[in-house]
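ok posting inputs for the magnesium ion job
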Amino acid sequence: MYQSPRRLCSALLQRDASGLRRLPTPGLRRQSPPPAAAPRPASPRLLVAASAASGAARSCSRTVCSMGNGTSRLYSALAKTLNSSAASQHPEYLVSPDPEHLEPIDPKELLQECRAVLHTRPPRFQRDFVDLRTDCPSSHPPIRVMQWNILAQALGEGKDNFVQCPVEALKWEERKCLILEEILAYQPDILCLQEVDHYFDTFQPLLSRLGYQGTFFPKPWSPCLDVEHNNGPDGCALFFLQNRFKLVNSANIRLTAMTLKTNQVAIAQTLECKESSRQFCIAVTHLKARTGWERFRSAQGCDLLQNLQNITQGAKIPLIVCGDFNAEPTEEVYKHFASSSLNLNSAYKLLSADGQSEPPYTTWKIRTSGECRHTLDYIWYSKHALSVRSALDLLTEEQIGPNRLPSFNYPSDHLSLVCDFSFNEEPDGLL
Ligand SMILES: NC(=O)C1=CN([C@@H]2O[C@H](COP(=O)(O)OP(=O)(O)OC[C@H]3O[C@@H](n4cnc5c(N)ncnc54)[C@H](OP(=O)(O)O)[C@@H]3O)[C@@H](O)[C@H]2O)C=CC1
Ligand SMILES: [Mg+2]
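and the output
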């Protein structure tokens, strides 16, 4: 059982009036009573908006997925136009492309709708934030970053073969509510997601109305497109709260390996904090999976590091890199990141007693090939310029249960990683 050494705090942090998040006074792990199943609302208005859009997008992907290569770019363009054409039939449902005119959603109302849809599911797992502060409190509110491979719907239902997960548990109408509930529970300022194949019809419309600005970069040849009745290509998505950050620049990166273009991608964005005017780079990636591809992932990792060197002008600005690296800490690509001249550290090592070991797992599933328990997901950060103030503890083995993930309790085969960061005092060349 993985022991987290430091004080445990309740997972649900309260935002007080000033927007500051307070870690409740540390104490024993408090098992908050499971949330009462909210009464089913008369009409789940907000979620209906998303599924109305999914009808449009699905019809689009059915048209598109039979086409040949290069469909993901065409899909993205088609999905956008269809979404806008669907908007003409249900103007109140689909978001307008102009973020200035979005009807905001009350996160509490959306959470209530999700919980009503999930009223037959077991209550959410309790996860605690571990307080990692070692220095004086920062004058600015922390920056909360969530890293999560949310499991593409087409892969979960059509390709991943999670043999111990009941098909029922993967139904999109409920699984999407588990994903949204996790996002609403931890209220990240920045979301770094992989295996997003419901961007245009679910996450973009709902998260933009919660105040996020989103970017999606699909895989050039997504395995989702091999699955009948898919929803389009999967890819990486990056969302940030517009009331906290301004976008300075954004780069969609198609990763190379030995100078060849590959099927894996990344997004790197430079953001400026509106409170402190401090700039930083946030990146999300999803490296090639499977054993036997270690050298390939190593080459992709080097390519990503080179891109990030250029974007941060040789680490002149702090950097946070989130991803499903599909690599254990023993792999070459992990060592490249740990020894990079970008001076990166892996945030989740700080949960270990010696601060030097990664968690025992970030993904745990059972496929036809057997049980796979691995540490593949990481949040890297500039270790001189940033401090990790807290990190969300992992699910315990007993919470995960004998059939592992995904399950009726948890929507993905990968756990979400969530960290609160703060800038260190102005580092003169300490990056
Ligand atoms: N790359 C190319 O040049 C071309 C690719 N394609 C298509 O692309 C697909 C390859 O996609 P790509 O994303 O590069 O491949 P990856 O090997 O990176 O894996 C694709 C997905 O499969 C999941 N996965 C990993 N291990 C297994 C497993 N043992 N069983 C089932 N699923 C698993 C991964 O999830 P996780 O990351 O969570 O482990 C990942 O999301 C091919 O299947 C083909 O459909 C088609 C033509 C050309
Ligand atoms: Mg996967």
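notes: The longest helix spans residues 45-65. The longest strand covers residues 260-273.
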